[in-house]
Write a structure and sequence with these properties.
Blueprint lengths: L1 H17 L5 E3 L2 H8 L7 E4 L4 E5 L17 E4 L7 H11 L4 E4 L6 H10 L4 E4 L3 H6 L4 H22 L8 H14 L4 E2 L4 E4 L20 E6 L1 E3 L2 E2 L2 E6 L6 H19 L7 H14 L11 E3 L6 E5 L12 E4 L2 E4 L3 E4 L2 E4 L9 E2 L11
Parallel strand pairs: 1-5, 3-4, 5-6
Antiparallel strand pairs: 1-2, 2-3, 7-10, 8-9, 9-12, 10-11, 13-14, 15-18, 16-17, 18-19
Helix pairs in contact: 3-4, 6-7, 8-9
Amino acid sequence: MSEVYAVRRGLLRDRCAAVGSAAALVSRPANVRYLAGGAPPGAVLLLGPDEDVLLCPRPPTGDPADGRTDEQLRVDLLSVTGGDPVVAAADLATAGGAESLAVEEHDLTVARHRAMASVAPKLRLADLGANVEQLRIVKDEEEIGCLRIAAEITDQALGELLESILVGRTERHLALELERRLVDHGADGPAFATSVATGPNSGRGRHRPSDRRVEEGDFLSVCLGANYRGYRVEIGRTFVIGTAPADWQIELYDLVFAAQRAGREALVPGAAYRDVDRAARHVLDSAGHGEGLAPWTGHGVGLEIDEDPQLAPAAMGKLDACVPVTVEPGVHLPGRGGVRIDDTLVVRPEADGGPELLTITTKELLAL
């Protein structure tokens, strides 16, 4: 893996050189982990023309959740307790003869930016922008393998819950149980706060679980995902509790399922991000549910649960192969409830079978 991280850092170094900066400072934790293999709390990565250095405010704990730092990478511990590694990085870059330093302005606070300028007044600070995030969009097969395992763990946890008695239990209790099951099956933890929504709450995006209890005839919508070696996936499913679904529930479910299928089928290399969104959104809009839809149909996943690309009406760009994304349309009817269906898939060319579905829990409308 050391070679993989070295190649990634080399690609970023080339991008920096193209805009006239021989050094770069990466401070966003997911970006540090992508380039260094591990991201101990508070660590930043300095890419220099000759050597790369991971600066840590305290000794790494060795927690697997932080990743495993590239053994070929130099690691410096700050000598001053409570010191800021970005300030130490600016000082180190100046000592190494750098005249400019590209920084992640979207991650740094104004106070940290000013502190760097104060210790290295002659160092020109430029904006690195989203260069690392752009490198992260296309995943290699090892990254996809981690996502695949995360999806298997997620499917296992959800499948076990569906076999238990649900009536009378609260949304909050079910969410906590799902997160425990994720860890039991090998996850580092949940990829994001698990959402469980019942009855009139169902169908809401990222609903915060409440003390409402599951009742007969409810829609039950869940959204969860596992974090495995830093890589995160997402699945969303909707079920009916206890009895055969009502006609309106079947009609709404079939509509959202059709929208989700349209979005999945649009996932081909070269497809515009907004065209994928349009494919799913058109189905719901044509049925009179255009108002109140989420501002996006899906998004990228990886070291963060919500990363580029965004599948949204105004999104610019086109899909590449080996890009994992979610497709997650939903409709919520105020006072009644709603449906969400959410999968994580990897974009693949038709010659390779089309989009690879990672989350495989059934999308049949089950009565539990």
